[in-house]
Amino acid sequence: MLIFKWFRFCFLFVIILGCGKTIPSLENFDTDQWKSDPLACLNKRSEMVSSLIEQKSKLLALDEIEIVEVLGKPDRHELYKRNQKFYYYYIEPAGSCDTSKASSQQLVIRFNAVGLAKEIGIE
Questions:
Q1: Domains in the chain: how many in total?
Q2: Tens digit of pLDDT for each residue in 50-103?
Q3: What is the CATH number of the domain that holds 61?
Q4: CA pair distance 38, 42, nearest whole angstrom
Q5: Element of type H or E holding 1
Q6: Any long-range contacts for 48-54 (C-beta under 8 Å, 24+ apart)?
Q7: Is residue 9 domain-resident?
């Protein structure tokens, strides 16, 4: 009996570890370069945003931690009603940069109450 309990425990442990999803790799997108340009002050992000938008289906349904692994820490985030969150990544230099515009474009990721990316767009 003890052997069956031990076997069942090991089997469940392996199943739980094997159920994790992998972080997608984005084609024609340099994640290190994206992460190294906070607030888009170096204007590196604007070159990569079209590739990112074309592949946004790979980012949908990822959770917050997985999005941060791919895109880095957001430049700005907002908590909305019903536990929805918004992550903002500047595409054009932000207002605090030397080369900023009056209004800068941002990549916006909306998370639902469960913490999964629901919408991705540009404002």
A1: 1
A2: 999 999 999 998 999 999 999 999 999 999 988 899 999 999 998 888 876 778
A3: 3.30.1450.10
A4: 8
A5: none
A6: 49/91, 49/105, 49/107, 49/122, 51/26, 51/27, 52/26, 52/107, 53/120, 53/122
A7: no
Q: What predicted TM-score, i.e. pTM, was given to this entire model?
A: 0.81
Residues across the chain = 123
Instruction: List, for residues 10-52, the tens digit of each pLDDT value.
Output: 665 656 655 666 788 889 999 999 999 999 999 899 889 999 9
Tokens representing residue 68 in the block: 């941060």
**121: amino acid identity, one letter:** G
Range(s) of the domain holding residue 33: 26-122
